[in-house]
Protein backbone atom coordinates (compact mmCIF):
# COMPACT_ATOMS: atom_id res chain seq x y z
CA UNK A 1 0.00 0.00 0.00
CA UNK A 2 1.47 3.31 -1.05
CA UNK A 3 -0.57 5.47 1.27
CA UNK A 4 2.04 8.19 1.38
CA UNK A 5 2.83 9.01 -2.22
CA UNK A 6 6.09 10.53 -3.52
CA UNK A 7 4.24 13.85 -3.80
CA UNK A 8 3.23 13.61 -0.17
CA UNK A 9 6.78 12.79 0.85
CA UNK A 10 8.05 15.83 -1.03
CA UNK A 11 5.49 18.00 0.71
CA UNK A 12 6.46 16.54 4.07
CA UNK A 13 10.07 17.50 3.31
CA UNK A 14 8.89 21.00 2.41
CA UNK A 15 6.98 21.23 5.67
CA UNK A 16 10.13 20.40 7.62
CA UNK A 17 12.25 22.73 5.49
CA UNK A 18 9.83 25.59 6.05
CA UNK A 19 9.24 24.94 9.76
CA UNK A 20 10.94 27.72 11.63
CA UNK A 21 11.29 28.95 15.13
CA UNK A 22 9.15 32.07 14.84
CA UNK A 23 9.76 35.10 17.04
CA UNK A 24 8.03 37.78 14.97
CA UNK A 25 4.27 37.55 14.95
CA UNK A 26 1.39 39.48 13.51
CA UNK A 27 -1.01 40.35 16.28
CA UNK A 28 -4.21 39.16 14.56
CA UNK A 29 -5.97 36.40 16.48
CA UNK A 30 -5.86 32.67 15.85
CA UNK A 31 -9.14 30.83 15.51
CA UNK A 32 -9.78 28.64 18.56
CA UNK A 33 -10.92 25.64 16.48
CA UNK A 34 -7.69 25.85 14.47
CA UNK A 35 -5.60 25.92 17.64
CA UNK A 36 -7.57 22.96 19.02
CA UNK A 37 -7.03 20.94 15.87
CA UNK A 38 -3.27 21.56 16.07
CA UNK A 39 -3.28 20.58 19.74
CA UNK A 40 -5.02 17.33 18.77
CA UNK A 41 -1.58 16.15 17.61
CA UNK A 42 -0.76 15.52 21.28
CA UNK A 43 -3.16 12.57 21.06
CA UNK A 44 -1.05 11.17 18.22
CA UNK A 45 2.32 11.68 19.89
CA UNK A 46 4.64 8.97 21.19
CA UNK A 47 5.27 8.87 24.95
CA UNK A 48 7.20 6.54 27.20
CA UNK A 49 4.86 3.82 28.50
CA UNK A 50 1.99 5.81 26.98
CA UNK A 51 2.36 8.07 29.97
CA UNK A 52 1.31 11.23 28.08
CA UNK A 53 3.06 13.36 30.72
CA UNK A 54 2.49 16.72 28.98
CA UNK A 55 0.57 19.40 30.83
CA UNK A 56 -0.28 22.68 29.10
CA UNK A 57 -0.91 26.00 30.81
CA UNK A 58 -2.27 28.75 28.63
CA UNK A 59 -1.43 32.32 29.59
CA UNK A 60 -4.23 34.68 28.71
CA UNK A 61 -4.41 37.28 31.46
CA UNK A 62 -2.37 40.47 31.19
CA UNK A 63 -0.81 39.77 34.59
CA UNK A 64 0.30 36.21 33.75
CA UNK A 65 1.81 37.34 30.45
CA UNK A 66 3.49 40.33 32.07
CA UNK A 67 5.08 38.06 34.68
CA UNK A 68 6.34 35.68 31.98
CA UNK A 69 7.68 38.53 29.83
CA UNK A 70 9.46 40.11 32.82
CA UNK A 71 10.90 36.69 33.56
CA UNK A 72 12.22 36.40 29.99
CA UNK A 73 13.66 39.92 29.98
CA UNK A 74 15.55 39.30 33.22
CA UNK A 75 16.82 35.87 32.11
CA UNK A 76 17.85 37.30 28.75
CA UNK A 77 19.77 40.16 30.38
CA UNK A 78 21.55 37.62 32.58
CA UNK A 79 22.37 35.47 29.57
CA UNK A 80 23.80 38.49 27.74
CA UNK A 81 26.11 39.00 30.72
CA UNK A 82 27.66 35.60 29.97
CA UNK A 83 29.09 36.80 26.65
CA UNK A 84 31.91 39.22 25.87
CA UNK A 85 33.00 41.33 22.93
CA UNK A 86 31.56 40.58 19.52
CA UNK A 87 29.44 37.68 20.80
CA UNK A 88 27.82 39.96 23.35
CA UNK A 89 27.23 42.58 20.69
CA UNK A 90 25.62 39.99 18.39
CA UNK A 91 23.56 38.45 21.21
CA UNK A 92 22.17 41.84 22.18
CA UNK A 93 20.82 42.25 18.65
CA UNK A 94 19.01 38.90 18.52
CA UNK A 95 15.28 38.67 19.01
CA UNK A 96 14.89 35.62 21.20
CA UNK A 97 11.18 35.52 21.93
CA UNK A 98 7.88 36.60 20.48
CA UNK A 99 6.33 37.00 23.91
CA UNK A 100 5.60 40.66 23.31
CA UNK A 101 3.20 39.94 20.45
CA UNK A 102 2.24 36.28 20.14
CA UNK A 103 -1.55 35.96 20.50
CA UNK A 104 -1.27 32.49 22.01
CA UNK A 105 1.23 31.56 24.70
CA UNK A 106 1.39 28.17 26.33
CA UNK A 107 3.79 26.87 28.97
CA UNK A 108 4.31 23.16 28.42
CA UNK A 109 5.22 21.06 31.44
CA UNK A 110 6.15 17.46 32.12
CA UNK A 111 4.35 15.78 35.01
CA UNK A 112 7.27 13.89 36.56
CA UNK A 113 5.09 11.83 38.86
CA UNK A 114 2.28 10.80 36.58
CA UNK A 115 1.03 7.27 37.28
CA UNK A 116 -0.22 6.92 33.71
CA UNK A 117 1.68 4.13 32.00
CA UNK A 118 2.61 2.63 35.40
CA UNK A 119 6.23 3.74 35.03
CA UNK A 120 6.91 1.54 31.99
CA UNK A 121 10.14 2.58 30.31
CA UNK A 122 10.92 5.32 32.77
CA UNK A 123 12.28 3.39 35.76
CA UNK A 124 15.98 3.65 34.87
CA UNK A 125 15.59 6.83 32.83
CA UNK A 126 12.81 9.03 34.22
CA UNK A 127 13.97 11.82 31.90
CA UNK A 128 12.23 9.86 29.12
CA UNK A 129 9.01 11.53 30.26
CA UNK A 130 10.47 14.91 29.35
CA UNK A 131 11.68 13.60 26.02
CA UNK A 132 8.12 12.44 25.36
CA UNK A 133 6.92 16.00 25.86
CA UNK A 134 9.56 17.24 23.41
CA UNK A 135 8.42 14.65 20.84
CA UNK A 136 4.81 15.83 21.19
CA UNK A 137 5.79 19.48 20.84
CA UNK A 138 7.67 18.69 17.63
CA UNK A 139 4.57 17.14 16.11
CA UNK A 140 2.48 20.09 17.20
CA UNK A 141 5.06 22.46 15.70
CA UNK A 142 4.78 20.79 12.28
CA UNK A 143 0.98 20.59 12.39
CA UNK A 144 0.80 24.29 13.25
CA UNK A 145 3.21 25.12 10.42
CA UNK A 146 1.09 23.12 7.98
CA UNK A 147 -1.77 25.48 8.88
CA UNK A 148 0.45 28.49 8.25
CA UNK A 149 0.91 29.20 11.96
CA UNK A 150 4.27 29.98 13.49
CA UNK A 151 5.58 28.51 16.72
CA UNK A 152 8.46 29.85 18.78
CA UNK A 153 10.08 27.90 21.60
CA UNK A 154 11.35 30.05 24.47
CA UNK A 155 13.74 28.60 27.02
CA UNK A 156 15.38 31.78 28.31
CA UNK A 157 13.37 31.79 31.52
CA UNK A 158 13.81 31.16 35.21
CA UNK A 159 11.62 28.04 35.58
CA UNK A 160 11.28 28.32 39.38
CA UNK A 161 10.00 31.88 39.05
CA UNK A 162 7.56 30.91 36.30
CA UNK A 163 6.31 27.97 38.39
CA UNK A 164 5.65 30.36 41.30
CA UNK A 165 3.92 32.90 39.09
CA UNK A 166 1.72 30.28 37.43
CA UNK A 167 1.18 28.26 40.62
CA UNK A 168 2.43 25.08 39.00
CA UNK A 169 2.56 21.79 40.97
CA UNK A 170 6.01 21.05 42.40
CA UNK A 171 6.47 17.84 40.40
CA UNK A 172 5.96 19.47 37.01
CA UNK A 173 9.06 20.45 35.00
CA UNK A 174 9.04 23.24 32.45
CA UNK A 175 9.86 21.88 28.99
CA UNK A 176 8.85 24.74 26.71
CA UNK A 177 7.23 28.12 26.64
CA UNK A 178 5.52 28.29 23.27
CA UNK A 179 4.56 31.45 21.40
CA UNK A 180 2.02 30.76 18.67
CA UNK A 181 0.51 33.00 16.01
CA UNK A 182 0.66 34.14 12.40
CA UNK A 183 4.28 34.70 11.36
CA UNK A 184 5.35 38.06 9.97
CA UNK A 185 7.44 36.31 7.31
CA UNK A 186 8.47 32.88 6.10
CA UNK A 187 11.93 31.50 5.52
CA UNK A 188 13.80 28.26 4.94
CA UNK A 189 16.70 29.56 7.03
CA UNK A 190 16.91 29.63 10.80
CA UNK A 191 17.01 33.19 12.07
CA UNK A 192 20.17 32.38 14.07
CA UNK A 193 21.86 31.33 10.84
CA UNK A 194 20.80 34.51 9.06
CA UNK A 195 22.09 36.53 12.02
CA UNK A 196 25.43 34.64 11.79
CA UNK A 197 25.13 33.26 15.31
CA UNK A 198 25.45 29.60 14.28
CA UNK A 199 25.24 27.32 11.21
CA UNK A 200 23.36 24.07 10.63
CA UNK A 201 25.36 20.86 10.38
CA UNK A 202 22.83 18.04 10.46
CA UNK A 203 23.34 14.54 11.82
CA UNK A 204 26.79 13.27 12.69
CA UNK A 205 26.97 9.50 12.98
CA UNK A 206 29.95 7.47 14.13
CA UNK A 207 30.43 3.70 14.14
CA UNK A 208 30.18 1.81 17.42
CA UNK A 209 33.29 -0.11 18.45
C1 LIG B 1 14.64 23.20 23.27
C2 LIG B 1 14.65 24.46 22.46
C3 LIG B 1 14.74 25.68 23.11
C4 LIG B 1 14.78 26.87 22.38
N1 LIG B 1 14.81 28.08 23.03
C5 LIG B 1 14.81 29.22 22.31
C6 LIG B 1 14.77 30.50 22.95
O1 LIG B 1 14.71 30.64 24.17
N2 LIG B 1 14.77 31.60 22.17
C7 LIG B 1 14.82 31.51 20.80
O2 LIG B 1 14.82 32.55 20.14
N3 LIG B 1 14.84 30.33 20.17
C8 LIG B 1 14.82 29.19 20.89
N4 LIG B 1 14.81 27.98 20.25
C9 LIG B 1 14.82 27.95 18.78
C10 LIG B 1 16.18 27.62 18.23
O3 LIG B 1 17.03 28.71 18.30
C11 LIG B 1 15.97 27.19 16.76
O4 LIG B 1 15.22 26.01 16.73
C12 LIG B 1 17.29 26.99 16.02
O5 LIG B 1 18.00 28.18 15.93
C13 LIG B 1 17.03 26.46 14.60
O6 LIG B 1 16.13 27.32 13.94
P1 LIG B 1 14.78 26.79 13.32
O7 LIG B 1 13.94 26.22 14.45
O8 LIG B 1 14.14 27.97 12.68
O9 LIG B 1 15.15 25.70 12.36
C14 LIG B 1 14.75 26.81 20.97
C15 LIG B 1 14.63 25.57 20.32
C16 LIG B 1 14.58 24.42 21.06
C17 LIG B 1 14.45 23.09 20.34
Question: SSE layout and pairings?
Answer:
Elements: H1 6-18, H2 32-39, E1 54-58, H3 62-80, H4 85-93, E2 104-111, H5 128-146, E3 150-154, H6 159-166, E4 172-181, H7 191-194
Antiparallel strand pairs: 1-2, 2-4, 3-4
This protein binds flavin mononucleotide.
Q: Your description of this structure?
A:
- Helix content is 38%, strand content 13%.
- By secondary structure, it is an alpha+beta fold.
- The chain has a 4-stranded antiparallel β-sheet, sandwiched between helices.
- Bound molecules: flavin mononucleotide (FMN).
- Flavin mononucleotide (FMN) binds at residues 20-21, 23, 96-97, 153-156, 190, 192.
| Uncertain regions spanning at least 5 consecutive residues | none
Catalogue the ligands. flavin mononucleotide
CATH superfamily: NADH Oxidase
The biggest sheet, with number of strands, parallel, antiparallel or mixed sense and barrel status, is:
4 strands, antiparallel
Number of alpha- plus pi-helical segments? 7
CATH class: Alpha Beta
CATH-scheme architecture: 3-Layer(aba) Sandwich
Radius of gyration: 18 Å
Strand content: 5-15%
Amino acid sequence: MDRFSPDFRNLLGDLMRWRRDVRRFRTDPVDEALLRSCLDTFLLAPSVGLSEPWRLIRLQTVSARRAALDNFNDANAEALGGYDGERAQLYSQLKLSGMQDAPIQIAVYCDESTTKGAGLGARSMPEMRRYSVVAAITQFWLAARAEGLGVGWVSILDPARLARDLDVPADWTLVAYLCIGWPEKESTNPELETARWEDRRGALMIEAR
